[in-house]
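Problem 12. The chain below contains 247 residues. Write out its predicted structure in C-alpha cell notation.
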Amino acid sequence: MSVMAACPTEATVAVIARPLAAAILKSWMCWTVNRCHFSQYNDPGDLARSTHKNDLILLGDLFTLPQETGDSLLNTVSRVVGPAAGTPVAVVSDGDKFDLGLRCLQAGVKGFIPTNSSLVVAISALRLILNGGVYVPVEILAETDSTGRSPSLPAVARPVGPDQARSSAIDAGQLRQLGLSRREMEIFGLLQQGAGNRQIATALGISDNTVMVHMRNLMRKLGATNRAQAVFKARQKLATLLAPVET
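Solution.
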C-alpha cells in the first residue's frame, strides 16, 4: 500500500482572497502542513506593504463569474509575483482553461490548481510547491496533444535532457505510446519537469521507495540509466513511432 509522504512541519502562508475563499484555502493548508501560520490580505497592495516573511503566497480566485476570470486574475498575478522576491506563489482558481493556467505559469507562479481538482491532488500540489517544486496540471500538458501547441513553462518546469533548450514537454497523449503504466506516466511527467524523488512522492502521495520501484521499471522500459537519458530515450522512441511511413 502506498504511504503518504510526510507533510511539511511548519509554514507561514499569506492568503490573498475574499473572506469565504480565504477560509476554504486556510482549511486546505491545515491538511497540507502540520502547523500553519496565516496572514490574510484582500489586495496585492496590502501584501506588498507587509513586512511578514512568508513560505508561500496563496492566491484564491474563487467564486468569480466566468467573465471575471482571466485578465483580472493575470493582472493580480503580475502584481503579486514581482514583489514576492522569490517566495513561491500558487494560484487556486475556478478558471480551468488551458490558456489561463499556462499564462499564470508563464507569469511566474509555481503552481496552478483548478478547483475541479480533488482535495488529495490539491494538497499534494501545495506540498510539492512548499518543497521547492512546480505543479503543472496534467491537463495543461495533455491539451497540447489536441491543440498542437507546445507550452512554454517556467525554467524549473521544463524537461531536462540533452535537447533541453530546444524541446517542449512530452505530453500525456504521446506518453501512452511508450508502453508505460499509468503511474509510470505520472512519474515521467514530473521527472521531465525536474522533480526529484521526494518531490514526486509528495506530489503523488506515495512513498519514496514506491517512487524508486516505478522509476527502475520506467528506466528499464526506456533503456535508460539516468533521468536525462530517460527523457532523451523517450524522445528517440517517439520520433521512431511517429515518423511518417514511406510508401
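Discussion. The radius of gyration is 19 Å. Students who got a different answer should revisit the alignment rule from Section 12.3.
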